[in-house]
TrEMBL record, chains A, B:
Residues 1-48, 63-93 are annotated as: Disordered. SUPFAM superfamilies: SGNH hydrolase. Belongs to the 'GDSL' lipolytic enzyme family. IAH1 subfamily. One of its GO terms (molecular function) is hydrolase activity, acting on ester bonds. The lineage of its organism: Eukaryota, Metazoa, Chordata, Craniata, Vertebrata. InterPro entries: GDSL (IPR001087), Iah1-like (IPR045136), SGNH_hydro_sf (IPR036514). The keyword Hydrolase applies. This is Isoamyl acetate-hydrolyzing esterase 1 homolog. Keywords: Hydrolase. Residues 76-91 have a biased composition (Pro residues).
Length: 346, 346
């Protein structure tokens, strides 16, 4: 039998378009013309350092793996471990006892990096079927966790207050590798119709800046942050929702646009990445109603649109993360613990 | 304007079947005949303790909220905080300064409970579109994180080695509220055709028991664990995959069934919950091929099937978790920090 084919896991690296993977892949195929990104790439061999990148992974699915194994470069003294590195492994006996507890003692904790999605209901719902958060989590599997910190109905005034409860200053190693800040859909509600959620434009700007500033103070520098503007509002559809609830239309697309513009400006002022969803979804006067389910929240098409534009920004931030734990074909058959208990970095 | 209607977030509690929520809801509608579970429930009022349960949530979407607010019961001295509780809040000044840093100092960290999904590729792929892991994450949003610890191609021999790198003994508070252990699809590969992944039945049993034993040693008792058996194998479809890769069929459904039976027995012996997917998917001689994408991995239908059977088991384990941070309508408008910085438990 050909050892590299025909067993479970092969589907990952074959680059085939399976029934299951097609819909998700569709979202990103535009970007990279590749159906098997981040799936089945051959990560490091045991004992060999490899700075895996998503670009590497793509190549790895098409080429023999050997060229992607780089000898581990020296790390200058005093510099922090690479993202994704576990705590340093204590000296390990050459031959491990077979017992579980002995393995436990020998095994170093594997640190799993995190991406935080901070926002309102459009973030909270992002793991629904076809949701952009779930797409990110799938794309980043074996690289980092994607944590949903979406709070339906919240505006930046409230977000600013809770952010310090969600992210504290840590050791540096455990600070998130990327954070999305995605508010504005509630801030931009009309003051007269929805005073509880409305936040004035000036305060929205100040709150966004304050959150970026706070993140920097807890070791999340601006280059790890992506601000996302609210999507455009389909007034006709949202008005139907409002009327069904017995009230008047409480948001206007042009007003939302002012908040989106302000979000863009904050990103420029602070040096963060930004995704101006409001502008992108209306580009060239296209009909954006299919991107929304009820005029305000994202439809499956809208989720796919957001993901396809967000992914390149996130990819930049996670490109240095290795796949966590060896590709199964690289596990040493006779002594798997030699592969699986790491070489100090994996 | 009716303050309780027509603004962002309303969609959550309206119980309406929106375009976005229908497919996900379908998976669970069989179970609870409710389209809005865990969405838009009204959690605790500020300053009032509430032990929110998913059952409460369901009722809350249909009834007035007042009856779900219980006065906080006293906690005996020396007992650990409830799951989902943040670190104790230090004494907070009655009136908070407006500055962000001051808020930061006053805010206690909010601990986010975790569910761990530990398994092979069927777990690793569980955040693909319609995947059972993403469904769990969506269902448990604002209650806990659902972390993907799936390792494509791995068997229990390797899983046993890496488990201590994934979960260490913690403070009790931070141990996972639920763990799924879902292996067997690779262990049950035929020894002659796939010696690398094959694990003998006796060793599979011992490895599963060893992992349950390890989890108990790090404060994850058996009642938080769900063993999941491998699904049945559609030999015709999987043989096509194998032949396309130039090798012979390397798994047999009857052999997989032996591993599923052993998994069931381990669960009985150890006192954990179990989901015998192999048996459930073949119940009453039904055609199970639609549950599989390539004969081995789950199709969208298979993901939905797994989720619909897993959810009741997970629901039991997370029923005491509160929704994290207040429902937006409960945030005090004039002084939101009073709602958002907690009363010591929220």
């Amino acid at each position: 039998m050909n050892e590299r084919t025909g067993s479970e896991g092969t589907r990952l690296s074959s680059g085939k378009r399976t029934k299951m993977s097609v819909p998700r892949a569709t979202a990103t195929a535009r970007l990279n013309n590749d159906w098997s990104v981040a799936k089945g790439a051959r990560p490091q061999n045991p004992g060999v350092w490899r700075t895996a990148t998503l670009t590497d992974n793509r190549r790895a699915t098409n080429c023999a793996g050997a060229s992607f194994h780089h000898h581990r470069p020296p790390r200058p003294r005093g510099t922090p471990p690479r993202p994704g590195s576990p705590r340093p492994l204590p000296a390990r006996p050459a031959l491990l006892p077979a017992g579980n507890m002995a393995l436990c003692e020998a095994a170093s904790s594997l640190y799993w990096p995190r991406v935080l999605l901070f926002g309102d209901s459009i973030t909270q719902f992002s793991f629904q079927q076809g949701g952009w958060g779930a797409s990110l989590a799938d794309k980043l599997v074996r690289k980092c966790d994607v944590l949903n910190r979406g709070f339906s109905g919240y505006n930046t005034r409230w977000a600013k207050i809770i952010l310090p409860r969600l992210i504290k200053k840590g050791t540096g190693l455990d600070s998130p590798v990327a954070v999305t800040i995605f508010f504005g859909a509630n801030d931009s509600a009309l003051k007269d119709e929805n005073p509880k959620q409305h936040v004035p434009l000036d305060e929205y700007v100040a709150n966004l800046k304050s959150m970026v500033c706070y993140l920097k103070s807890v070791d999340v520098p601006e280059h790890r942050i992506v601000l996302i503007s609210p999507p455009p509002l389909c007034e006709a559809a949202w008005e139907r929702e409002c009327l069904a609830q017995g009230c008047k239309l409480n948001r206007r697309n042009l007003v939302v646009g002012e908040y989106a513009g302000a979000c863009l400006q904050v990103a420029r002022d602070c040096g963060t990445d930004v995704l101006d969803l409001w502008t992108l979804m209306q580009k060239d006067g296209q009909d954006f109603s299919s991107f929304l389910s009820d005029g305000l929240h994202l439809s499956p098409d809208g989720n796919e649109f957001l993901f396809s534009h967000l992914w390149p920004l996130i990819e930049k931030k996670v490109s240095s993360l290795p796949l966590l734990l060896p590709y199964w074909r690289d596990v040493a058959e006779a002594k798997p613990e030699l592969s699986l208990l790491g070489d100090g970095d994996h």
